[in-house]
Design brief:
3 helices; 0% strand; mainly alpha
């Protein structure tokens, strides 16, 4: 149940961000959830490599511990994706100038 709430809030935040910058809302909401799961999946691969090399011994039967280890990596991937999108979209924002005030003025001014 908590996982569903986490996915909802991740998607909602990206939905709001893309709405603010006039981007495709559902695309980025779903893409943020995909990035979260890719972060978790990559953590599993890294843990598998660490265990197979014998660097660290982790109890693989304790699924709660594995989930708690992978949660920050998934959230970190989502946070980095959020920061990258926000910086990119801030650079491409078009400022709308109110041209009604300029009617009747000279072009040179």
């Amino acid at each position: 149940m908590l996982g569903i709430l986490l996915i909802y809030f991740i998607g909602k935040r990206f939905y709001d961000l893309s709405e603010e910058y006039k981007q495709n809302k559902w695309l980025y909401a779903i893409l943020s959830i995909v990035v979260y799961y890719v972060g978790i999946f990559s953590t599993g691969i890294i843990l598998g490599i660490i265990i197979s090399l014998g660097i660290m011994d982790i109890d693989l039967e304790n699924s709660l511990m594995i989930s708690l280890i992978s949660l920050p990596f998934g959230l970190g991937a989502v946070y980095l994706f959020y920061i990258l999108l926000e910086k990119k979209w801030k650079k491409t924002v078009v400022v709308v100038k109110d041209e009604i005030q300029d009617i009747g003025k000279n072009i040179d001014e």
